[in-house]
Amino acid sequence: MMFPVSLFLHLILLMISTITLAQEAKTSLKPPLHGKHWVAISGKPLAASAGAQLFVQGGNAVDAACGMLAAAATIWDTLGWGGETQALIYNPNDRKVYAINALGVAPSGATPEKYRQLGYDYPPEYGPLAAVTPGTPGGLLVMLAEFGTMSLAQVLAPAMDLAEGFPIEENLVNQIRRYQPFLEQWQTSTSVFLPHRIELGVPPWPVPGELFRQENLLKTFQKLVEAERQALQSGANRKEAIMAAYERFYRGDIAEELASAVQADGGLITMQDLANYQVYIEDPVKVTYKDYTVYKLNTWVQGPVLLQMLNLLEPYDLKALGYNSAEYIHLLYQVMNLSFADRDFYYGDPYFVPEEPLKGLLSKDYAALRRTLIDMEFNDPNVRPGDPYPFQGESNPFVELLQKWKIRQPEVKDEIVTIPTGRTRDEAFHAGTTTIQSADAEGWVVSMTPSGGWVPAYIAGSTGVGLSQRMQSFVMEQGHNPYNLMQPGKRPRATLTPSIALQGDQPVLSFAVQGGDTQEQNLLQFFLNVVEFGMDVQQATEAANFNSYQLHSSFIPTVSEPGRIILRTDTPKEVLYSLSQKGYRIELEQLSSGPINAIYRDVKHGTLMGGSSNYGDDYGLAW
């Protein structure tokens, strides 16, 4: 029997379409969370439960987010109390989005020359010399004072319970085991993380399920609550009382102990550094993508990268390309290359000169110019930063540095670079943290990506506070990025990047992900999964993504691997073949989406839907 040619071609096209869209099946392994009153999501069940407790007690989404932050830092969910906190908050009262900048700053004396004198080509990955000033305590207190409704004593109660002892999980035990040699460098860290060090016949680390106790951290919490209580007794209002706790942490006895301990162990943080530290409430940056307005943090993190990528993609018919088709993946990879090249040269602390050319970077006209560089047939391994200055009516002050800028690659194509702690470059590239998402019926929405102070953390004296390791995110050569050159009082450009998207003046999406340099890559694909391909937030958190390694790593060593791409193992062979013909070096992983957490606000029905990744231990609750 003969088939008509037209029917044969139709069947072939249908088969190809079925193959390339196979990964778009709108199913999920975990069910979405549905709530009428609130949703609380974090990287660990204990942290999500802390948020739920505060919601049940009558708190709003900010109270719950602060409680989850306190709990996550206490159980070492890839961060400690001396790390940094980044957040976006939608306030339904004035219908505005606020940015919380609680990233610590470089201490006094922290210059490239100082670190080279100490024998470092770049800041150490761990220890007192890796620490910027603690940001998380200040960020939590400022958020709670300005936007919450509860007292500090109420919000810290779950964390205080956890500090008294929480059942430690296997993942944290394994981290302690792996980094035991580093923890043993600092007596205070040893006493916390290796509680059985003086017992005979047993390993020094805790075992899964054991109650992990932090007496000194609990005493610090008690001091903060005491400062609040004393202020209230003296006639202070709620906000003033919370800020009295801020004063005690950064200028009182807690600060004295922290600074003296750091300096005794060779670090640079001083009392003056702590006293001068300031949490900023900022205006976020934003762009429009079709009928959405997407909000991100400024260039002190990599947040504007997502906005640049959306500007580049906006004119394309992504649905016509097909979800995770070879053409779709290739286009997104090129867009990532162009945007991350700009990040690698132009992003830094906006409170320091030189001023980042943000207006130009987020210009639709600049995106149109950069879009002309995209070759849809082959990956460009030599993508460079552009020049956004003409798009804000200025001349680039670093033309010579820009001309000399080059992609830094491993000397050997397949070289596996190992950094001092034994982590590979890939592990550093994906370095995790946690995310916190909360929303309530009143309209408050919080998206947060806190980090820093992860194991093996240096614990500052008797404070129980594990300090940040964020100094490693600075560059020490101006030619690498003149905006992110190490300087006292300056914030290093971090990867941490929460997101909120509005339609009109109503927030509809709150989303964030952990994972170092993969964050904006995964968030871009999540956002497109929802707004272009019609997935719900749970489907979109689990959907097949890809990761590029062509950008310069934000962690040590800062190298690029053009054409390297991580795809999920169920990627159709036809897609793999097509991408290989376009110049990609393909690697496959079973899970590739990253631990994305998100909340969707159904404005029409007045309900909330939460998506909690199936990638790790992320967990959410709703009511």
> What is the number of beta strands?
19
Distance between the termini: 60 Å
Taking all Cα atoms into account, the compactness measure Rg is 24 Å
Mean pLDDT: 93
Shape: globular
The number of helical segments is: 23
* Beta-strand content: 5-15%
Assign the structural class, choosing from mainly alpha, mainly beta, alpha/beta, alpha+beta, or little secondary structure: alpha+beta
Structural summary, described in words:
Helix content is 37%, strand content 14%. Strands 1-18-17-13-12-9-8 form a 7-stranded antiparallel β-sheet. Strands 7-4-3-11-10-2-19 form a 7-stranded antiparallel β-sheet. Helix 3 packs antiparallel against helix 5, helix 6 (152-164) packs antiparallel against helix 10 and helix 11 packs parallel to helix 12 (253-264). Mean pLDDT is 93; it is low at 1-21 and 414-421.
List keywords for this structure.
19 strands, 14% strand, 623 residues, alpha+beta, 7-stranded antiparallel beta sheet
Overview in brief:
The protein has 623 residues and is an alpha+beta fold. Helix content is 37%, strand content 14%.
Question: How are the secondary structure elements laid out?
Answer:
Layout lengths: L4 H16 L12 E3 L2 E5 L2 H12 L4 H14 L10 E7 L4 E7 L9 H6 L18 H12 L4 H13 L1 E2 L2 H9 L1 H4 L3 H7 L17 E2 L2 H19 L4 H14 L1 H12 L6 H6 L3 E3 L2 E5 L2 E5 L7 H10 L4 H4 L4 H21 L11 H4 L2 H8 L27 H6 L20 H5 L6 E5 L4 E4 L50 E5 L2 E8 L5 H13 L5 H6 L4 E2 L15 E5 L4 H9 L3 E5 L6 E7 L4 E6 L6 E4 L1
Parallel strand pairs: 15-16
Antiparallel strand pairs: 1-18, 2-10, 2-19, 3-4, 3-11, 4-7, 5-6, 8-9, 9-12, 10-11, 12-13, 13-17, 14-15, 17-18
Helix pairs in contact: 2-3, 3-5, 3-6, 5-11, 6-10, 10-11, 11-12, 14-16, 14-18, 14-21, 16-23
